[in-house]
Amino acid sequence: MKLHSPSVFQFLGRHVLFLRICIDKKENNPNCYIRDRWVLANGNWGGCWSWRIQPRGRSASEHDTLLSIINGLSLVSEESDGWKCWNSWVPRKVNVFNWRALNDRTPHISNLDKRGIDIHSLLCPICETEVEDINHIMFNCPKVKAVWSKCYDWWGIPTPEISSAINIGSSNIMVQEGNKDVAKIFHGVCLVTLWAVWSWRNRVVHALNECKQKIRNEDIFSQIQILSFLWISNRCKLIGFNWSIWVNNPKAVAGAIT
Ligand SMILES: [Zn+2]
């Protein structure tokens, strides 16, 4: 078990959250990694922090998120270090968003309301009928459900009852295909779908009132096909990855025609 392999910890420490805490000059050593501060003591892993100033406010919140992320790490003996939910075939921003969603750290309306921010309406910006929380906006909103349904149909996989971010986080229901490349590609598509739904939702929120309905009525499924093709084909380097196969039989790109 390579707990101190720098790959995951450097990524976590340098690029996701810790850097911002360091920039705020809260950490005594601005060049330290998480691996320098996450230590094994008396058989338990835990933080051994060295704050010059105790993080407060936003830094404290980022610190909490960091702890959630570290606690979500799945390290498996005799395998390279990795994040169970991390998918190297989609961009970092998509993975980071997945983690934010998994830890309910996205600024959806219920979270803003919990922080005491005055919100005009608690209703979902897309369907305008139910309160927006993470599971609603990512899965249960009727318009979002329709998007998921199209993605599953495209892949020829029966649409499961997805009702929580944990399902995506654990990725178990997403990765039931026999071929591990197919499973990883499909998992990547699911992460891109989450990211695309959140982008869609944000475009509605930030649009002028007279433009909101037009954006709500958009069908983002084709964007998901295009983005996932561009991102995954660029990274996974599998032979036979072309657009026509991608839209007609995506499993075939990994040589697993079913
Ligand atoms: Zn909704």
From TrEMBL:
Pfam families: zf-RVT. Residues 84-148 form the Reverse transcriptase zinc-binding domain. Keywords: Nucleotidyltransferase, RNA-directed DNA polymerase, Transferase. It comes from the Eukaryota. One of its GO terms (molecular function) is RNA-directed DNA polymerase activity. The keyword Nucleotidyltransferase applies. This is RNA-directed DNA polymerase, eukaryota, Reverse transcriptase zinc-binding domain protein. It comes from Artemisia annua.
